[in-house]
Design a protein that fits this description.
The protein is mainly alpha-helical. Helix content is 54%, strand content 6%. InterPro entries: Tscrpt_reg_Rrf2, WH-like_DNA-bd_sf, WH_DNA-bd_sf.
Length: 137
């Protein structure tokens, strides 16, 4: 099962942008993340729509923070990315009529829902400034 690392990668980029000193191009960010600039632009567009970053086109253009890191939480970024679940595990629906599958899904669903709720509540208390603080940003 493949892990979704978009949240940690975006957090990485945003903390870097705080100390970069000038707009960072999609190409620079893509090199940092070892990905394609198109992927960076698509992801950053989601953050731009929420007002967390801004972009300038042309010479000396690129991505910059539009909101101080102290005003952005992990939850804000999770939500901006459109993440539906923080867990890669899920329920099976291959045997909908099987009473054992229904019982297992019910038990797993309750636990996952409770764990996700707790995690997202904690995300709301951690700002990106707190992340950056550990790196002298």
């Amino acid at each position: 099962m493949r892990k979704d690392s978009r949240l940690s990668r975006v957090l990485h980029v945003l903390v870097h942008l705080e100390s970069y000193g000038k707009p960072a191009t999609s190409e620079v960010l893509a090199k940092m993340l070892n990905t394609n600039p198109v992927v960076v632009r698509r992801t950053m567009a989601l953050l731009k729509a929420k007002g967390y970053v801004t972009s300038l086109k042309g010479h000396n253009g690129g991505w910059s923070l539009a909101t101080p890191l102290s005003n952005i939480t992990l939850f804000d970024i999770h939500e901006a990315l459109g993440e539906s679940s923080v867990f890669a595990i899920g329920l099976t629906d291959e045997h909908n009529n099987c009473p054992i599958e229904m019982a297992v899904n019910e038990a797993i669903s309750d636990v996952l829902t409770e764990a996700e709720s707790l995690l997202l509540q904690r995300f709301k208390t951690i700002t990106l400034a707190q992340l950056a603080k550990g790196f002298g940003v």
